[in-house]
Amino acid sequence: MKLKRLDHVNIRTARLDVQIAWYAAVLGLTSGPRPPFGFRGAWMYLGDAPIVHLVEVADEPRSVEPKIEHFAISAEGLPAFLERLEANDVTYSVDPVPEFPIVQVNLRDPDGNHIHVDFAAEEHASPGAG
């Protein structure tokens, strides 16, 4: 067997519509085709790939000490992304990775799930890049 890539992240939420709107507005994902499961949910697409699966649950899931601390997405266009975060009143931090050519933008979705969006370090060093 040969693993190829991580396919998606599955997130349980009691606020499905809020999460769908947030992933669309903040990360630019689009809600797309999803199998007709017997429960509400949404598959949020990055291009042709449904990378975030949202599953509606009746009660807010507890996240006292989750075993998965975050998920990450690589991206280009740091200045535009920071503008999008500001426009949507999203709290974030911009954190260069020590001794690696990456800068992380750390943020949380409305349910508190930690996400970081990774950019090439040169984007952070360029004029107007936050």
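(ticket continues) Second input and output from the same batch:
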Amino acid sequence: MKEAIRELTERKIEMSKICQITGKKAMIGNNVSHSKRRTKRSFDVNLFTKKFYYVEQDCWIVLKISAAGLRYINKVGLDAALNNAVEKGYCDWKSIKVIA
């Protein structure tokens, strides 16, 4: 039974709904009605696509980031945030879309 629930929850989380900077992804939880009946639902991340000018490479890049990822970029800088994300395995350099 636990394997079936785990498989159901893993299928609902899509790879496109993951922040490339913080690694946040959709969580699975319950809708709880007034009668305490529980049904599965997903809590999506506040995710959006944003263009950044990457000064070190002199190009524009597009990232799928969450609001927390945007605050992190504003705090430490784009280069440090990208290096940290690649080091932790949240994204790789091939998955970052470069606009010419």
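Agent notes: The longest strand covers residues 47-54. The chain has a mean pLDDT of 88. Closing as not reproducible unless the customer responds.
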